[in-house]
Amino acid sequence: MASAEASSIAPTPLLKDELDIVIPTIRNLDFLEMWRPFFQPYHLIIVQDGDPSKVIKVPEGFDYELYNRNDINRILGPKASCISFKDSACRCFGYMVSKKKYIYTIDDDCFVAKDPSGKSINALEQHIKNLLCPSTPHFFNTLYDPYREGADFVRGYPFSLREGAKTAVSHGLWLNIPDYDAPTQLVKPRERNTRYVDMVLTIPKGTLFPMCGMNLAFDRELIGPAMYFGLMGDGQPIGRYDDMWAGWCVKVICDHLGLGVKTGLPYIWHSKASNPFVNLKKEYKGIFWQEEIIPFFQSAVLPKECTSVQQCYLELSKQVKEKLSKVDPYFDKLADAMVTWIDAWDELNTEGASAKLSNGKA
């Protein structure tokens, strides 16, 4: 009887006191009801975009704090200029004000997916498993993640590399609506992703990837200061490249510092496609610019003197100003914003900074 009682007690959620869930939004968060079994034990940081006078309703029973544009301006002062407005890139403010070791960020149109057996997928639990296990960026394992149950390092894998590297980023995927750019959306308006691939891969060192911010977790202590989602949205010539920019910066810095980035599981259910014509208007400059941005990041080299994420990021900002400003003056402004972001991050993440954050909305 005692053992039956013990087995009926819910296990303590992984990293309950070490992880914040960051959600950018412009609407009521009814979608949290679906995530309640998985998210309720955790602390939420909600970053409200758009009109700060609008009241965002959060379902009962969630532990959260909410920041709108007025709060961002009050907390950061002039440095608030580095936080995008009218764009989901504002989520990175939540990364900055968090005091936890880990971050999971999700969009409000992402629902709980089901695996092929029909079981609901606890995306957060899988992200945590990905982050707590090492990565293998220096040598590819053909049996995918060697640390998963039922897998291992294959014959020929160097024993000297089997300890792996610390995992900084866990990049999850999406069933239903794929994360396509506007031209692909227009060509394939009815395409849906129905393929569930039971796989987690480490992205090899030296390889860039398109990072999507709608189902993403990372170790804030290892890579947090590099997770800046850039200048997007209102007043900017580009949108929908916020997570891409962060991903390129993060990957170059992770490669330099010997950290790992994983992609694959977990899946979420992406419920609705954004308007491809609106997306095209936001993306069209980026579609051209990325043909020069990608080679820039592919050839970027950070000096060995850069041993912290902040040092790496500031060095990268100098290279952006030096090499990408010729593409468009926007990159000159973006490079300055990268420096402002690091200044603001360091200011909020020093001793005695917490008093500045209290906003009475929890």
Automatic annotation (TrEMBL):
Pfam families: RGP (PF03214)
Main localization category: Golgi
Source taxon at top rank: Eukaryota
Compartments where found: Golgi apparatus
GO molecular function, one term: UDP-arabinopyranose mutase activity
Reaction catalysis annotation: UDP-beta-L-arabinofuranose = UDP-beta-L-arabinopyranose
Function comment: Probable UDP-L-arabinose mutase involved in the biosynthesis of cell wall non-cellulosic polysaccharides.
Family statement drawn from the similarity comment of this UniProt entry: Belongs to the RGP family.
Name the UniProt record assigns to this protein: UDP-arabinopyranose mutase
